[in-house]
């Protein structure tokens, strides 16, 4: 019998709990393909993870937009001012900045842009104090767990000569640091 190429994913039918999770997500407004991707990412724990933290559970799922995350959270009656929503807004702004070539943002700029993002999709604006607390919580989480993947974290660092702290995703810092090492090694070989 012929085997599939190792890089081609093999088809695996969904279990009954995964089908239930898929139905749960589509009933709460996610398109079929996105629901399928979320279920593939979380398996049998999908419903628990999405109910607990819909933004974090759907972050990084290909095709998932901020508006879809907000609609899902609203369908699940999640409060508009919560750590999960604010943390996702902070990370969304940092990911968008990466798309423009910025590895990090000044803390004040990050807080302002994340607040604007939440305000566009939340009645009653945003709670600036909660946004700052969420940033501090995500930064403490990053310091405690190290930099093995992002998992909802945002790092805050005082950089030499900067007037205020800078914020970044741990994976972005690791990538930048790795490139700097490569360039330094190559420059050493050329000298």
H and E string: HHHHHHEHHEEH
Name the poorly predicted regions. none
Given the helix and strand composition, which structural class is it? Answer: mainly alpha
Q: Would you count the extended β strands for me?
A: 3
Question: Helix coverage percent of residues?
Answer: 55-70%
Count of helices? 9
What share of the residues does DSSP label as strand, in percent?
A: under 5%
Overall geometry: flat
What topology, given as strand order, has the largest sheet? 1-3-2
Kindly provide the radius of gyration, computed on alpha-carbon positions and rounded to a whole number of angstroms.
19 Å
Mean pLDDT over all positions = 85
Question: For the report, how would you describe the main beta sheet?
Answer: 3 strands, antiparallel
End-to-end separation in angstroms reads: 55 Å
Describe this structure in words.
With about 190 residues, this protein is mostly helical. Helix content is about 60%, strand content about 5%. The protein is built from nine helices and three strands; from the N terminus they run ααααααβααββα. The protein has helices at about 15-25, 30-40, 45-50, 55-60, 65-75, 85-100, 105-120, 130-145, 170-190, and strands at about 105, 155, 165-170. A three-stranded antiparallel beta sheet has the order 1-3-2. β2 and β3 form a beta hairpin. The mean pLDDT is about 85.
